[in-house]
Amino acid sequence: MTKTPYDTEHLLNDPATRRGVERTKDDGITQKAKAVLTKAKTVEAEQLDLFDEHSLKQVAKISGEQEVEDLRREIAALMKLAGLNYEVSKHEFWQKYHAKQKVKRDD
Question: Where are the domains of the chain?
């Protein structure tokens, strides 16, 4: 089967395309969260009820999580360029960390 402009099946199965779509969705979430938080600063606190305040905290948390995920993706990309594997390095780090913690507990 040829890949014509109208044949989208190959796009749906392409991991690079899926990552691009996911990143676009993540960027949209982060941008919208920042816009909501900015708009919330213009509203007087007396106008917000408890649920509004709770929702704003959730939005701030979501925005922060997205920024952390973006940072981790950038770190992984940089490590890949350096010939390192982010997941392997992460696994090795946690193994060493927990081994040190166990030694401290045993002392």
Answer: 9-106
